Amino acid sequence: MFENTLFFLSATLTIVGAAGVVFSKNLMHACVLLLGSLFGIAGLYATIGADFLAASQLVIYAGGVVILMLFAVMLTGGSADSSNKFGIEKIPGMGSTKTYVIAGFSVLVISFTILKLMANFMKSYKAGELPAFSSTVEEIGTLLVTDHVLAFEISSILLLGALVGAAVIARPRKG
Amino acid sequence: MSPSLNEYLNQFEGHQKVIATVTEVLGFDATGLMTFIVFFTGAFVVVNVMALVGGLGTYAERKISADIQLRQGPNRVGPYGLLQFLADGVKMIMKEDIFPAQADKTLFNLAPLLALIGVFATLAVVPFSSGLTLANLNVGVFYLIGVSSLVGVAVFLGGYSANSKWSMLGGMRGASQIISYEVPVTISILTIVLISGGMSFGSFVGGQGGFPHEWYIFHNPFTFIGFFVFFVGMLAETNRAPFDLPEAESELVSGYHTEYTGMRFGLFALAEYIEVFVLCGVAAAAFLGGYRVPFNLGDGVVFVEKLGLPPIIGKNIGQVLQLGAFLTKTLFLYYVVIWVRWTFPRIRVDQVMTICWKYLTPLALFNLVGVTIWVFAFDGHSIWDVLGHMLSSGSGGGHH
Questions:
Q1: What is the percentage of chain B residues whose pLDDT exceeds 70?
Q2: Please, are residues B149 and B300 in contact by the beta-carbon 8 Å criterion?
Q3: What is the pLDDT of residue B2?
Q4: Does A55 contact B142 at a Cβ distance shorter than 8 Å?
Q5: Phi, psi of A83 (to 5 degrees)
Q6: A76 and A138 within one domain
Q7: Considering only alpha carbons, which residue of chain A is nearest residue B148?
Q8: Same-domain check for residues A146 and A76
Q9: How far is A149 from chain B (nearest CA, A)?
Q10: Range of the domain at A172
Q11: CATH label of the domain that carries residue A17
Q12: Is A120 a member of any domain?
């Protein structure tokens, strides 16, 4: 019963937050609602017993990503009026019938592709097929440095590249 | 070592009997209900006591600062001015609640709540004693870092939503400072994770002993440095002086809570003081042995064997001793935090970032590598074990 309650709470938070992000006119509010939605996702992870993922979700998104998004929105003045001083909409392409149709269609295509990809992971392991772990932390750690070490290293190189690139762009030019 | 409050209570017969009685009366299995009640009561008590600690924190701050500056401090309300914080609270509630006309109302309301929610959520994993831990999560420390970063969002939103230049600058400084200093703090905690082999506070404290030489701070030279990196980073994360740039009075009026009045401001202040307590508790648990009491008095076995007390009383005496040990260490660190605030001048913004990225982060990374090598080379033994082994084998070799 407790898990059901937790699931419904987190799912509601996720969906309401996500809907709020889409329908909110104010970008700042959208960011805060996104925070709520991400917390809901952390709750969903906790519901299925993936405690490490839930905590990482909190650390990475609540701690880092949302604050950076808030910064970016604030510095670009995104929360100001949606029309500029000539009365023209700043983002005219958003929200017309055409974009909704295209977005709906791409959502269908993408979700089918993802479901097709996911089908391989959906199989449930029998007892004894995987080694017993006392917590998901050990399990994720073991898998990261054994089976998925290539993906792990590639992603770290990607992050390093992003870091160096950001430093190069941000560096003041001489002369 | 009982992992959480409920499991601690479950080992007593009285508690089991209560569950059985409730089951009989209600006609269904009351284990779940009783678990809920236990956790609810525990959380209720902990949150309220911590709010009290936060309130007393303001009193301690004023009294200690008065001591340092050769003043009297609050001494009119109650004995030694002890009830000053209650008077302050009443004053804050009575004050007029002002909304700036240009403020973003929703976010302005939300920001103090977010700060308080983030701090109260961290209390779930603080290990007060081996029995009084609300939840011994497998990822306890990670969870704590995650939810406490809500305070950063709150600081930023508070600064943004008030629509004032001072607040905005304070909020930006606060958010950038908090996310920057999270890096060295997290890496310093990671060194302890490496040694203890777990992310829960139970495994942190369980790997240490009651005596200073069994604490992780004296485990090896790297953790000794790591403790100070953690402590400095902790000061910056809680916006305490010398890192109180988000609320620098001399430049920014009062920083991100300039426009807040009454209890809304009070919530920010309360959140700050409780966060300092929680992070001091984390430092105590990760580096200073947490709730461990010397001679294993904490598990209460000695009282049962030597004094002939019934096990339940022995256990509870042990718990009280553990609570005392934890609070002593935490409150000592709390004192140091206040002491630092009234001793050091505030540093500049660029110095804050320099200290974080050019000194603390490389130092923390160096510690991480050092601890990794240490744990690998000496199989997780502390420097005292290694020295003792070397001395005994050295003298043994001398005889032959």
A1: 97
A2: no
A3: 43
A4: yes
A5: -115, 150
A6: no
A7: A63
A8: no
A9: 19
A10: 134-175
A11: 1.20.120.1200
A12: no
Contact assignment for B179 to A51 by CB distance below 8 Å: no
Contacts of A2 in chain B (CB under 8 A): 32
What mean pLDDT is predicted for residues B383-389? 81
Q: How far apart are CA B223 and CA B207, in angstroms?
A: 14
CB A91 within 8 A of CB A82: yes
* Same domain (yes/no): A2, A74: yes
Across A76-85, B135-144, B201-210, B289-298, least confident range: A76-85
What DSSP string describes B372-393? Answer: HHHHHHHTT--HHHHHHHHHHH
Same domain membership, residue A71 and residue A139: no
Length of chain A: 175
Contact with chain B for residue A11, Cβ under 8 A? no
pLDDT for A161 equals 93
Percent of chain A with pLDDT over 70: 78
Pick B179's closest partner by Cβ from A28, A52, A67.
A67
Worst-scoring range by mean pLDDT, A126-140, B56-70, B163-177, B336-350? Answer: A126-140
The answer to whether the Cα torsion of A40, A41, A45, A47 is positive or negative is positive
Is A97 a domain residue?
no
Of A53, A80, A107, the residue at which a domain comes to its end is A80
Determine the average pLDDT of the residues in B66-78.
Answer: 85
Tens digits of residue pLDDT in B93-125: 888 888 888 778 888 888 888 888 888 888 888
Choice between B45 and B307, residue whose per-residue pLDDT is larger: B45
CB contact under 8 A, A63 and B145: yes
| Domains contained in chain A, number | 2
Quote the Cα angle for B203-B205-B210, to 5°: 145
Nearest to A52 among B139, B149, B186 (CB): B139
Chain B residue with Cα closest to A58: B146
